[in-house]
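Fig. S4 source data, part A: sequence.
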Amino acid sequence: MQLSISGRKVGEDARVLIIAELSANHQQKFDVAVETIKAAKQAGADAIKLQTYLPETITLDCDNEYFQIKQGTLWDGKTLSELYKEAYTPWEWHPKLQSIAEELGLIFFSSPFDTTAVDFLESLNVPAYKIASFEITDIPLIQYVASKQKPILISTGIATFQEIEDAIQICKQSGNNQIALLKCTSSYPAPMEEVNLKTMPQLSKSFNTVVGLSDHTLGITVPVAAVSLGASIVEKHFILDRKLGGPDAAFSLEPYEFKAMVSAIRDVEKALGTVTFEISERVQHSRVFARSLFVTKDVLAGEIFTAENVRSIRPGYGLPPKYLAEIVGKRASKNLLKGTPLTWDLVEKKQQ
């Protein structure tokens, strides 16, 4: 299974696509957003992702109990409108940030949160879309995004199996099979015991899609582990410095951490390799340290080989140890000194 985003293959037999999520980590300062994108590139990101909404398109400016955040999150004590006024990325920044990102060689795309955001992103000709975890149940939005016939990355953070299935189905009904599912835990930060990475390969098996990870845990352990389980995409929040603060700062990686994650992921990719039982040239050279059969005491011509004068030891210049039982009881074809690697020509072929 593969997707293509901006000509870049994503999925089986392709390098992991590593996405730096800008989210709210610009503190409403354009220069900070620019520097964050540049730092993400230097840290090894392949793509930069924004979130495209306005406070009034994602919620209401209302402070009744329904709009108060009080679920034990980092944002408790605020209303939804207050949070999104702090977190949103001004739309007039988008084309400027897109130009900067693409000049750096980064893929630039975003998560739209309503149809007006999709229309705006279409005007920028973004190469892909991300459906955020909390929008996976918004089937009309997913249908509209899918109708643009571009790759869709869908986070599964709050979804049941049926809700994931519904999202996949509406994409396919729209004629769009370019789907990737991102295993996600919608807790901020996400505790390790709730990540359940083993679900990710099951997503691939159940829905026959490219799979990846949208991660909110602290550190880099989970994304690196996800790659070993088949993640083709890794998304992680990125910030210049957590001391800058902001709604997502606590679970965002700083540049040096992101760079370490990228390096570890690339190492894991190399280590995963392919299924093979061939021995590399380097390993072949190391086989000299394997065990083999050696003469361990001086042996005269015609003397019988025993478990005392022939043993399996290192190094590996003699016969493989599997022949020990066959050789014991046979006779030496010539005088042999202790430390001689045993080979077939040193064993009498015709016994007396």
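Fig. S4 source data, part B ends here. The mean pLDDT is 93.
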